Amino acid sequence: MMKTLRRWAECRRRGRPHHGEILREAAALADAGALKPIVDPRRFTLRTVTDAHEAVENGTAAGKVVIDIVD
Predict the structure, then answer these.
(1) Conformational region of residue 33, where left means phi above 0, alpha means psi within -120 to 50, and beta covers everything else
(2) 31 and 46: one domain?
(3) Which member of 37, 56, 61, 71 has the lowest number of beta carbons within 10 Å of its beta carbon?
(4) pLDDT tens for residues 9-19?
(5) Angstrom distance (rounded) from CA 61 to CA 37
(6) 66 forms bridges with which residues in the sheet?
(7) Which comes out higher in pLDDT, residue 5 or 64?
(8) Are 55 and 61 in contact (CB under 8 A)?
(9) For residue 19, what pLDDT is reported?
(10) What angle do CA 19, 20, 21 make, to 5 degrees?
């Protein structure tokens, strides 16, 4: 947690131009295929959105949670 706080403080100190640098670096990594998004393997729907919220809230979700919107 201290490492995260130090990074946050460094970003605050450097200001918005530094955020642009970070975004450019992240975009280059994404373009190179070096980033692998972590997405929870479960798929939720609007009917099970409560389950999705609970998974995020209680920490059982692995990465990002997807909620499928189906007509």
Answers:
(1) left
(2) no
(3) 71
(4) 776 777 777 78
(5) 14
(6) 43
(7) 64
(8) yes
(9) 82
(10) 90
Contact 4, 29 (CB under 8 A): no
Q: What is the pLDDT of residues 42-55, one digit of tens each?
A: 999 999 999 999 99
Same domain, residue pair 42 and 66: yes
On the CB side of 45, how many CA atoms lie within 13 Å of its CA? Answer: 3
Q: Is 23 within 8 Å of 35 (Cβ atoms)?
A: no
What domain range includes position 31?
A: 1-35
**63 plus 45 within the same structural domain:** yes
Q: How many domains does the chain have?
A: 2
List residues bridging with 45 in a β-sheet: 68
Asked whether residue 30 falls in the same domain as residue 42, the answer is no
